[in-house]
Amino acid sequence: MTSGPALVSILRQGDVLVASVHTALDDSQMLRFQHDLVRQIGEHRARGVIIDVAALDVIDSFASRTLQSIADISRLRGAATVIVGIQPDVAFAMVRLGMGIGELPTALDLEEGMVHLARVRDRARR
Amino acid sequence: MTPSAASDEPQLEAQESADIAGLVPLLQRIVTARVGQHPAAEDIIQETLARVLAAEDRIEPGMLEPYAITTVRNVIASMWRKDDVAARNQHRMHDPSESVEAAELLVASEEQLAMTEALARLTDRERQVLLAHEVSGLATQVLADEVGSTAGAVAAQLKRTRARLRVEYVLALEGTEPPTDRCRAVLLALSSADRRRQRELDSARHLLECDVCARLSEPLLDRAPERPDEVRVPIGADPDIVSARQAARELAVRAGFVGADLTMLATAVSEVARNIVRFAESGEVSIELLARPRAGIRVIARDTGPGISDIDRALQDGFSTYDGLGLGLPGARRLMDEFEVASAPGKGTTVSMTKWFEKKG
Amino acid sequence: MDTHSFGEVPPEDQEASSDDQLLPQLVAHLREHRGTLRDDWASRIHDSHLLEAMTPQEMVTETTSVYDNYVGVLETGSVEALQHYARDLSERIIPRGVETHEVVGIVLLLRDVLARSLFEKYQSDFGLLNRVLNAYEPAANRIANTVAVSFVDERERVIRQQQDAIRELSTPVLPVRERLLILPIIGVLDGERAKQLTEQLLRGIRTHRAKVVVIDITGAPDVDETVANHLVQTVDASRLMGASVIITGLSPTIAQTLVTIGVDLSKMNTIGDLQGGLEEAERLLGYTVTRKEVMDGS
Questions:
Q1: What is the pTM of this model?
Q2: Partner chains of C (3+ C-beta pairs under 8 Å)
Q3: Which residue on chain A is closest to C208 by alpha carbon?
Q4: Interface-testing mutation among A31, A61, A66, A72, with chain B (most B C-beta atoms within 10 A)
Q5: Is the pLDDT assigned to residue C134 strictly greater than 60?
Q6: Domain locations along chain A
Q7: DSSP chain A
């Protein structure tokens, strides 16, 4: 991404990637984010991905769809994904918009996201 | 001017100039009190009226009087100063090239110092919330959730803090402390454009009596009324989608929207703006505050693109010709209270949608 | 015997006859006769059946304060103190149901009582009386105006506050235990209330870090299509925030409405009654409920 304050940060914690979106992203930035994250999943052979979207004040159809794509692609690459930090008003607008939020895996916050990933892994091991 | 020419003036314009003309007796009293029967008295009044007229668009109707009082005082003061400077400089040659750059640099660093000082004079809590909002870009709702308050309350607090910051900034810039207990309160009331408080404090009288406040109030009055009721955002590329929805959110906060309504509005604006970028390449989103029949906000998205040949189909879920979910128009419709699309193939599309602040009934 | 004869004016009044001396002189008069004038006023209030919500003791205190503030405004020309007092007074008496006409009424009575007293004092000199009343009336009107406006402002504020409180009360989000919320829906729902309810629930999920929400609609007599849609959206939005929703108290009629609008009931976690819903919630939260395990042990 261009210079200036980072719009997104991706940190590695063991085999989990924690991606935090820091500010509103436009469509091209969103796609760039998807690209970077998917690449890093491969590079680090991540088994889990947490995307923190607490800073997003709008998640419109394009953003929803991109988040859904990331979740789908990373699952195919062997990493479970969970979206955390969706704000109450944003959640409301997303369902009003009519996003078939389908299989989008979500959790309240980072901590719950970790719990969620651990549970998914437990289930996989059984 | 002949009377017949005047009577041809449209009603509205006559009304506006009547407001300004109403200031004349007030200005005459002030000028007479200060310069007596000075030959320049009439010029001062004319100059003041001209300045008020020029600034009229920036001033809210009820603020005309304090603005005029401040202006007339400044006109008088600058007249004295000019006389004074002219007297002192008669023997000197004026050299305009004299290190203008250095002076500008000095001004810039002074302004920065003043801002730092002004920030320091806020309470810790005021400063934290302001910086979190302005610098870190946290939404009022997020801030409200953190402290268990409402977005509306936080927005109101931010407004007060900004008004206070402006006051502290001009004070710091001047390097003065206000001479009376009343000054800060009056300046704050002017800075926040709070007319009720201004009346309570009898600000107009205070401006007449207090030199410091009269001087300081000018930048404050200039700033406060920057409140257009309509914002137009040209749409040409991806980043404009974000600008459009942010502009809509800001304007809607002023109409009193809070919480999910704000987010729904911003989301709907995002969808119609994206339609322009994807289908028409360029266009415009205009966002307008409504007062009648109820408080609300109207968004009009116009483009000169290829148009939509089958609007009914475009409003069905799942219809889309670009790689999206086909949610654009039907989704925006669900988020708003009123929604209309007009389109002519080959000429372009206009989407108008409204969200009411007060619901019917 | 009356020693005054017409036309004879006490020397200090003659001296004070320039107009800007009038108000101070008038104020001095009102101060001097404070006790009797105030009593006079209080009895007029009583006769007019105003402020009957107040005790006699309160009447004495408040009328004295209003009187002093009133005279204070006449003296200084500044309504600021009165404004604060009027707002403060309004705040105290509005909860008791004091109406706008009563507040305006008592101020007009006071204006009248004082005007009469001035009339009595100055009636011997008609010219002076006229000038006194000319000075008094605009100030008195301004006071009446100020008090009325302050009262109405305050009343509006209180009403707004009460409306907010009622809205809050009508949609209580109850934290039952850690990470578990119950939202009992009681009374008629319309689209607007359903929306507020959802917003409040979503905030509640965040504040209480809820994992499970039980929405009990036993107390909702009627659920139309709009509200049913809302219910579905509430379930979805809660899930986006990481919370599961259990719906209890779903009547056959409401279930039918949901099916009609195309809701797949198998995807919603619905349980007959609140008790069962709470047990399911505990299970989801990972607590074991012995009784249920025994029953489930098939």
A1: 0.54
A2: A, B
A3: A108
A4: A61
A5: yes
A6: 8-125
A7: --SSS-SEEEEEETTEEEEEE-S---HHHHHHHHHHHHHHHHHHT-SEEEEE-TT-S---HHHHHHHHHHHHHHHHTT-EEEEE---HHHHHHHHHHT---TT--EESSHHHHHHHHHHHHHHHH-
Q: Are A108 and A84 in contact (CB under 8 A)?
A: yes
Domain membership of residue B271 (yes or no) is: yes
Residue B114 lies in a domain: no
Q: Which residues of C touch A101 (CB under 8 A)?
A: 236, 239-240
How far does chain A reach from its first CA to its final CA, in angstroms?
41
Give the total number of structural domains in chain B.
Answer: 1
CATH of domain A8-125: 3.30.750.24
B8/chain A closest Cα distance in angstroms:
51
Q: Which two three-digit tokens encode residue B121?
A: 């004079």
Whether residues C240 and A86 touch (CB distance < 8 A) is answered with yes
Check pLDDT > 70 for residue C255.
yes
Name the residue among B145, B200, B201 with its Cβ closest to that of C206.
B145
Residue A117 contacts C where some CB pair is shorter than 8 Å:
no
In whole angstroms, what separates CA B31 from the centre of its chain?
A: 31
In chain C the domains, ranked by start, together with CATH numbers, are 11-166 (1.10.490.70), 174-296 (3.30.750.24)
CB contact under 8 A, A88 and B260: yes
Task: Give the contacts of A23 (CB within 8 A, at least 6 positions apart).
Answer: A5, A7, A55, B137
Residue B95 lies in a domain: no
Give Cβ neighbours of residue A102 (< 8 Å, ≥ 6 apart): A68
Of C209, C211, C237, the CB nearest to A91: C237
The full length of chain C comes to 298
The shortest CB-CB distance from B335 to any of A29, A64, A96 is to A96
Residue type, C113: V
CATH number for B299: 3.30.565.10
The contacts of residue B308 (CB under 8 Å, 6+ apart) are B314, B341, B343, B345, B349
Q: Per the CB < 8 Å rule, is C237 touching A107?
A: no
Q: Which residue has the tokens 């009784």?
A: C291
Tokens, residue C180: 């578990």
Contacts A105 to C, Cβ<8 Å: none
Please indicate, yes or no, if residue B34 is contained in any of the structural domains.
Answer: no
Is B267's Cβ below 8 Å from some Cβ in A? yes
Beta carbons of B308 and B343 less than 8 angstroms apart: yes
Encoding tokens for residue B347? Answer: 């000429």
Q: What are the residue ranges in chain B where pLDDT is below 70?
A: 1-19, 57-62, 79-110, 134-138, 222-228, 317-327, 358-361
Q: Which of C199, C211, C242 sits opposite A106 (nearest CB)?
A: C242
Q: Give the residue from B355, B335, B361, B233 showing the smallest Cα distance to B289.
A: B355
Cα–Cα distance measured from residue B354 to residue B350, given in angstroms and rounded to the nearest whole number: 13
Segment holding B199, helix H or strand E: helix B195-201
Q: With both helix axes pointing from N to C terminus, report the angle between B41-55 and B11-21 in degrees, rounded to the nearest 10.
A: 130
DSSP for residue B345: T
Q: Which domain holds residue B251?
A: 230-356
Q: Do the Cβ atoms of B263 and A90 come closer than 8 Å?
A: yes
Q: Tokens 């999910």 label which residue?
A: B260
Model pLDDT for residues C3-57, shown as the tens digit of each residue: 444 444 444 444 444 667 788 888 899 999 999 999 999 999 989 888 888 888 8
pLDDT tens readout for residues B17-55: 556 777 787 788 878 777 777 777 787 888 888 777 777
Chain B residue numbers with beta carbons less than 8 Å from the beta carbon of A26 are 238-239, 241-242
CA B57 to chain centre: 11
**Helix-, strand-, coil-residue percentages of chain B, each rounded to 5:** 65, 10, 25
